[in-house]
Amino acid sequence: MPAAEDAAFTSVVAAAARAYAPAGRTALHFARGKLRHDPVFRAILARGLVPDGARLVDLGCGQGVLIAFLRAARACFEAGEWPQGWPAPPRLAWARGVDLRRRAIAAARTAVANEAAFEVGDVRDAAVPACDAIAILDVLHYMPHADQARVLARCRQALAPGGVLLLRIGDADAGLRATITRLADQAITLLRGGAPRLYTRGLSSWIAEVEHAGFRVEATPMSAGTPFANVLIVARPAR
User: Fold this and answer.
1) Structural class in CATH, domain 3-81+88-237
2) Computed from CA positions of residues 9, 10, 16, 17, in that sequence, does the dihedral angle turn out positive or negative?
3) pLDDT at position 222 over 90
């Protein structure tokens, strides 16, 4: 990445992370590290994947870093701190995040304040209002396959024409990288006090499931700079 582009992106990351300072050092450092080193955030901005004026729902939002990131990106853009050649970041009409972890939701509410709504809830049961963009990043493989299908069907029903579902998954057919991804996910689940049961799929199975829910799919590797087998599925309602 050119130095000027990297500097502008770093400014966005720093601005988003600073919002977590009132939530404590752990939340702050997590946000900074996640946004800086996870390639999915850079890709969402560089490719303009969230439409301008979007109503955004983040299912399994954690501490809300995606929403904080998009808000910070728009502020940096309006201040003239933006990578040359990247599309303008979206102005969000509203944003809503759902996650099971109360501590993560508390940090999200502290960081984003009145600019988004966050609630503690199970993605499998959470209502998905009519919207233009839905993010489900590294979440679906924690629930049984039947629940995965139900969540995807609700997303398809909620998305407006021209909307987008951003779904990051692990490719269980990716050999050693898949093994590393699975072990990392199990370790994270144990650290959070949960049972390390995963419901993984190979990429072709994920694509078939998303298409069955009524989407057309574009899949892009999304683990650059990491040892993982992550793929970003950009899904749009099929006509």
Assistant:
1) alpha beta
2) positive
3) yes
